[in-house]
Amino acid sequence: MYMKRFFVFILATGFTTLAVQAQETTEKKKGEPRHRHMQRKAVRNNVHKLELTEEQKAKFRTENEGIRKKMTELKKQDQLTVKESREKMAKLRQEHRTNTQALLTAEQKAKIEKQKAVRKENMQKGREAQQLRMKQKLNLTDAQSAKLAENRKAAMEKMKSLRENKAMNETEKRTQMRELRKQQAESMQKVLTEEQQQKMKEMRKRPAKRRAA
In a 10 Å sphere around its CB, with 0-12 CB exposed, 13-18 middle and 19+ buried, how is residue 16 labelled? Predict the structure, then answer.
């Protein structure tokens, strides 16, 4: 899932720019959120692995400049309804995605698929390790662990469906995402005892203290 989002992200937000800058420093910028820094670093690393040729970079640049101009012009069309505007934007993005994917070689596409598989495996291992740590630290019963895993899976499926919903704009999606996270937190509270809830709060405070230090 990460690599799928990564692939769409780099095509939609300036693939060539990131590729050209892949050799630049990946040091954290002042005031940059940690997750944004890590995302930027991961994108650059993955772009670098694709080994784009100078010709590909130039063609990506042309495609990106073209989509930006078309999007700018589309936003100026005040006579369009919200639905019409979204449909036209979705069509432009799909056209841009098709054009940019066509610039990649079969080998580069295979690399993306391989990276996606590795990332998916690593994410699964990370989730399992995190769940085990939580079970041990909170002293969860097997029933509690199973219920939390069930709630987590349901939330992830809803978020996946939300991300893929082309009828909603990004602002609406972010609002719905926040609501889903809130619901997930509430469902977790219902599974945990008061003592476990208190332990959870303490666990969440510790990373913040380390960052402050």
Answer: buried
Average pLDDT in the chain? 80
Burial class (CB in 10 A: 0-12, 13-18, 19+), 103: buried
| pLDDT of the residue at 28 | 53
> Global pTM?
0.55
Contact in structure between 90 and 119 (CB atoms under 8 Å): no
- Nearest CA among 147, 180, 146, 148 for reference residue 162: 180
Picking from 13-22, 38-47, 51-60, 153-162, which range would have the lowest pLDDT averaged per residue? 13-22
* Mean pLDDT on 84-105: 89
- Please spell the DSSP secondary structure of 18-54, one letter per residue: HHHGGGS--PPPTT--HHHHHHHHHHHHHHHHH---H
Helix axes 106-138, 142-163, angle to 10 degrees: 150
Selection from 97, 26, 90, 85 nearest residue 60 by Cα: 97
d(CA 64, CA 12): 8
Task: Provide the sign of the torsion angle of the four alpha carbons 154, 93, 109, 40, taken in this order.
Answer: negative
Residue 44 has pLDDT above 80, yes or no: no
Please give the Cα distance from 59 to 194 (Å, whole number): 58
- The structure tokens listed for 117 are 């598989």
Q: Quote the CA–CA distance of 149 and 141 in Å, as a whole number.
A: 12
